[in-house]
Structure formats: C-alpha cells, structure tokens
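Case study.
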Amino acid sequence: MAIKDVKAGLRNEEGISTVLGILKQSFGERFQTGQSFREQHAHTTTYLPAQLPDGVVFAESADDVKAVVRACAEHRVPVVPFGVGSSLEGQVNAPSGGISIDFSRMNKVLRISPADLDVTVEPGITREELNRELRDTGLFFPIDPGANASIGGMTATRASGTNAVRYGTMKDNVLSLTVVTADGEEIRTAQRARKSSAGYDLTRLFVGSEGTLGVITSVTLRLQGIPEKIGGGVCAFPSVKAACDAVIMTVQMGIPVARIELLDDVQMRACNAYSKLSYPEKPTLFLEFHGTEETVALQSAQFAEIATECGGDDFLWTANAEERAKLWHARHNAYWASRALAPELDGLSTDVCVPISRLAECVAETQADIAEQGLLAPIVGHAGDGNFHVLVLFDGKDPASVEKVEAFIGRLNHRALAMDGTCTGEHGIGQGKMSFLEEELGGAVHLMRTIKQGLDPKNIFNPGKIFRNAE
Amino acid sequence: MAIKDVKAGLRNEEGISTVLGILKQSFGERFQTGQSFREQHAHTTTYLPAQLPDGVVFAESADDVKAVVRACAEHRVPVVPFGVGSSLEGQVNAPSGGISIDFSRMNKVLRISPADLDVTVEPGITREELNRELRDTGLFFPIDPGANASIGGMTATRASGTNAVRYGTMKDNVLSLTVVTADGEEIRTAQRARKSSAGYDLTRLFVGSEGTLGVITSVTLRLQGIPEKIGGGVCAFPSVKAACDAVIMTVQMGIPVARIELLDDVQMRACNAYSKLSYPEKPTLFLEFHGTEETVALQSAQFAEIATECGGDDFLWTANAEERAKLWHARHNAYWASRALAPELDGLSTDVCVPISRLAECVAETQADIAEQGLLAPIVGHAGDGNFHVLVLFDGKDPASVEKVEAFIGRLNHRALAMDGTCTGEHGIGQGKMSFLEEELGGAVHLMRTIKQGLDPKNIFNPGKIFRNAE
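After joint prediction, the assembly is written out as follows.
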C-alpha cells in the first residue's frame, strides 16, 4: 500500500548535529537550516507527506559535493540530492533527516561537441535551460518528461516521457557520468565513446538509482539534430482497443513517430472543459512526426491509413508550427485540465508500463475499476511504450478516500505486473512503490540490495528509497 | 601488455575433483572430461593461449545450470559459460580450471510476440538460427557482430557490430534476462515492458559482465521489422580524414544509415587480392540503408551529396539485392582477405572506440604507427560509432614479433584513451584488456570489483576475466 509505506526512519541525532556544525563552518551562507529552506527541499509534487532534511547545501562544484559526502559518511548522516523537486514518488524526502544537496547552482554546460552530438552538463541544469543553450548548435536533447526537471534528477529516476518512443529514455541517452561515491571520491563511469564493452555498465547502474548509490556531479548526454520539419496530428477512436491497435500497427510498421500519446475519454472531457475545445470525448491519439517535409508527410499519410483501418475518425494533421501547437494544446495542458476537474481535491499521478500488446486490456480494466469505485481519474498514456499514467483525484484529508485510492493503486500495479509489465515506467520507486518492486522482481531485489550495501555500506545515500530501510 | 596478462590462476584441486565426481553422477554422458572436449571449450579465436576447463556440462535447462552452479559454489570451483567460442579476448578460457557450461543444446526460441516486437530465447541459440526462426514473422534481430555468435555470448560481451549505428548494441536490445546467481537461484532482471524505472538496471549490469556475475539462462530481445527495401553502396575517398568527415556529416544530418563501414587502403588491397576485385585501393566506406524504395533512394542521394562534398569518388549504390551483395562482398570477406595476406602468420583482432570527431586522427596515427613498425595490419571500422578493428598479422612463435605487437597494442589503447575513447568498443575486456580497463576507468574499477565481490563472493563466475584474480 503506497501511502502507508512512507514511514520516518531512525534519526542519527548525534551525527546530524555534528554534520550541521561542520557544514555551517565550511559553507557559511551556502548552508541553510531554516524551516522554509527545509520545506522547499522536501516539497514533492506527490500525495506523499513531506519529510524535511535538516539542512540544505547549495553546491557549486564537485568539490562541494565531496565535502558534504565526506562529512556525512564520517558521521553516518543521510545525503539527499535535490534537482528541482519534480519527482513523483517521494525521491527527495528525508525520512531519516540529513542533508539535502541543492544543485540549482551547478547548472552549467561544461562542453559541447556538435561533431559527436554530445554535451556534458552539471546536474542542476534543467532540460529547458539545456535546450536553450543548445539552440545555436542545431542540436537538441529530446527527453521530455513533462516537468522542466533537472538533468541530474532525470538521470537519477531514469526519466522518459512523451518522445521516448522515438529517442529512448535516459538510459539510452546518458553516455557517461561523474559520481561522488561513498568514500567521497569522484569516479567517471565511462569515457565519451558512443559505445564500449569495457567492464560493467556503471553508467546504466547509476541511471535510475535514485541517488541511493552516489551523487551525480556531471552528465554526458547524446544529442539529436533539430528536425527540419515537425508534424503534429490528432485522431479520435471508438475505443481504447481501437486506438491501441493503431499504435501497435504503427510500431510494427516501423513508422518512426516521435510521440504517440493516448488520452482517454475522461481526459478529453477535462481538456475540452479546461481549454474550451470541442474535441470528440473519445479515446484520442496525439501524434508528432520528426523529419523533413517529405518524410513527415509520408509518415502522416501512413498513419492516416492505419487509423482508418482501425476505425478511427479523420486524422487531422499539420506541418505548420502554429497549427500544430493548437492541435497539441489539449495534450500539453492535460495535467492542469485534469486538476481543474476538481480543484479542491488532491492529485496523485501514478504510472505503470506493460507490453504494448496488453496496453488496451490494461487501460480498459483500469477504466472499469475506476468506474466501479466511483473514482475521478483521467488516463494519459505514452502509448508507443505501453506506459500510462492515472491521475487520481481524491481528498487527501479523508481517510476513506485515501484508503480507496491505495486499494486502487494496489490493483493497478497487480494488473500491470500480471501482464508482464512494470510497476513504474518512468516515475521510479522512491518511497511510493517499494512493495510493488518486491512483487515485481522478487529475488532480483536481493541483488539490488547487495549492490546497495557494497557501494553504500553506511547507507548514507538517500536511505529509505527503493528499498525499505533496514533500520 | 595484453598477452603477458594471461596467467594461470590458482587451482582448487580438491574442490575440482569433488565437483567432477558430482557432475559425473548427475549428468552422465552430458558431462565430458575428455581432452578433446576440454580443448574445444577453451578454443578462442584469439592470440591468447588456451586454458582448458576440467570438464564440460552440456546444459539442457535452467535446472541443469542451477545444479552446476550449486555444486561449484559449494566447492568453490570456477564456472565458465560457453556459447560458440567466438569471443576474442579469452572470455571462455579457464585460467583456474573448473567447469565449462556448454549452451549449444539450450538453443530454443521460448516465445515470440510480433505485436510487442520481442522474443525470448535460450542463450545457446545463434543469431543466424534466431533470424531463421523469425523469418515468417516479418521481424529480425539486427545485431550482427560478424561471427555467428550465440545470443548468450553476445549478451555477455555487450556485442554490437556493423549495424549498431542504426539499431544500437546489445545493451539497447536486451529487454530482460534470467540469470542463475551465486546462490544457485534463478532471478529475472526485468519484466517484458519496453521500459521501466523499477530499481537498479540489472539487465544492463549483466549485459557485458562476461559471465563474471552469474550465468544467463534466457534472453528477451527487442526485434525490428524486416525493412521493405535494403540499399547498399560503396564510395572511395582520398584519405581517412575525408571518409570520416563524410561519416560525421551523415550522422549529424540524421541520415539513418543502417551500416557505415570504413576499410582502409591496406584492407582494400587485401580484399581486391582475395576476391579478385578492382576497387580503388583507397580508404573506402561501405554503406547500407534500410527503409522503403523511396527512403532508401532519398538517403542514398543525400549521402552521395555528402561524399562529393568531402572529395569522395562516385558513390555506387543499388537497391537490387544481388548487386548489393556484390558491392558488399569485399566488406563481408574482409577478415579472410586480411588473413590471406599472410596465411602463415597468426592474426590478432583488437578493437578500440573513440568519439567520432577523433576517429580520423586515431586511425591515421595508428596507420603511421603500423608503417613505422613495419607491421602488416589492415583496419576496418564501424565508423558511425567511432569503433575500429586492427587485425595484426604476426608470428606468434617469434618472441620479438609478439613483443612488437604487444607494444603496438599498448600504444593503440593509450592513443584511444587519450582521445576520450575506450579500450574496447565491442570485444570486451576478457583476459586481454585488463590493464587497459584500469587505465581507462581507474576508480570506477574499484566499484566494479565491489559489485563482483557482492554478487559472487566466492569468485566462482568466470574468474580471471575483467579483473585480475586476487588469488
């Protein structure tokens, strides 16, 4: 049960107090222990209760990070990295207290190589800042998880988002990392070559490790050329099944869609109401194509045929940027449209991911479950990956409402797992999904714990995330 | 120095003798200890001396693998997985003796899902067998390391090959694994969803771990639709620099070449002699395009423009399968053509990989080094990835010749590392590149060792590979 999992851990009061003293001395104004700073750094965009760190270091260099890690390691005090706080499963909470490392001042582009299509950045840069810096190079960083997250945070949670179907997830786009490990030293996980068979893939081990194995101090990313032309389109379908069939055919035919997003009827109703639109309130696919004038037109025509075959309405598409923005407006505002359905309620965004052959079934069963429980919960899916989100609107102050949501999330995850899916396609485990991870991977979690113990023997790195605290 | 690294490890004679008895009893005829079986299972296609296992189990199921691992774990005896023995850095050698697990009988396709574009196979199936089995589905598995390697072996060494530039390497194409771990239990690293943020990426940790962390018992792979049309082409350039410039422009423009291979002038001379062809004996790119009639033609035309701009000769290309086979004949036979330059000599195939902006420089410096040393050593590169192979022809029985080659390989690796490259793009570390791994990643190797110790505390899994034996 997701919410009940969030317990406070044991606090090492003596160690914390010692480290507070050390950091005050070393960092002066760049170390803050005031309530408002602490609250800002436990803020999560989730339903999970905030658990505040004891202090916040505003790091400006890898040396700062080393100094914090060394002090915390010596006194067994938790270290919690903080990007912009957009994680959804409590990743920045501090259940055992400790020190939050704020990366907002480590937001520089360190180098760019247009010939190699790669860039090295400090972890605090956000993806929008990065893309602004890249603009003159003709290159862009494609991963878009929705929020303007930091690159370090996206790396730590193995983020993906709308155009992962074309460009992959963070695991596919991080070439190399530097990381401060438990001994306070900085290591580099890989050289900058595009591929390597040199030893264990430490890069991928740190991508998605949610700050539990070390603190990321720089990220080398693959980049893509900005497409010459971007096309966008929208198509409504009579059922989720029909829409998913169109997705499967699109993927099978190898049409390189950049985005293919599924909004269910409830979500479309919310979008219409919020943005004063008049889309059919039916399951709808939003598509984006990246290429040249010719290939975008070709891909759009191919998809239109598929849509017709699957019983879809007319496929509206355009390669005009302004019209595309209009068509996609509903998708871009989906989250706020959903919240506006019931502004007085809390919103809980959860995600699962299944093989795409099971997506229609998983979404349909989930919709039936929502209806049966009388929940208000629009669904948005990154359909090309089999990944979907349910935004459950509920009253967080009403225990009965909370209990109902917890039971729903339990069923949603069991359903996805039974279909050979995963309890999270992109949000991570954090505090919210620890029990589902155990269900999903069983014995493999023992291996993960062994790795955690080996690399972080004092359990200082983001304790109480991914695994239940042994303490 | 590569060759001197290959030392025998300490042998646990008592344990080995006990395990031989246990396995004879359990496996009968499926356990062989005869000299010829042992020799076959230490055969490597490399310059490295063979180090024989003490016996070979022909596994037929994961339960067989568990039984072997349990016996070997109890008595601290090495376990060396064996696919087809095509690894190049001594990965199947048994420096401390022990048991080879032969996977040739575990070669079944366990399931296929055309809708999900994925398949689960036993590790002993070779890539050609797999593609034969897939033919009716319209799908194929794209990774092609040259040799008809087993999927298990390709997974273990993080193989890639000619079309990695389009389809990625094994790390990008393995969705999930089952693995027998040190306690003799089988775990699954991931569900079958196309992406996941659920805990540490154990899949990618095992991909490329060269049998040192556990024994792979099944592999779930991503598949691709067989392209409607395949185009092929060849283009000679006045210099390696000009050819590499064409590669960089191709990648920067986002032309989705399926293969872009560089053969140097020595290699082209070898190909002409071997296959009685009359290609210009100049640095030459071999290309392949996957798509439709239209896109293959479009991409070929785009590349032709780039080639002209970079000073290349006419770009010969065709979408006719037979003509394409003729154009590519030279590339396909490059290895044998090289060996035929001096059939009496030994051949040592080594690889490094650098950022593509440094490829021309790295190849040119290596050619100068070869010339200066009077070596015979054609170069073939997977240029789109910055990865290239040098096939050094030398007399393995002449210590002076061996020493010269070792010194050359040392310089080659230092050169690649200095250019932010890796000591191996696709062959792995095995026994041959342990010292270069240390040079390349330094402190990160300490983390790898920690992981190894945690997951294989008795050091039974392929000891003496990747890391020097502590024994």
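Observations recorded in class. Chain B has four domains: 3-104+448-455, 109-225, 229-336, 338-433. The radius of gyration of chain B is 22 Å. We will return to this complex in the next lecture.
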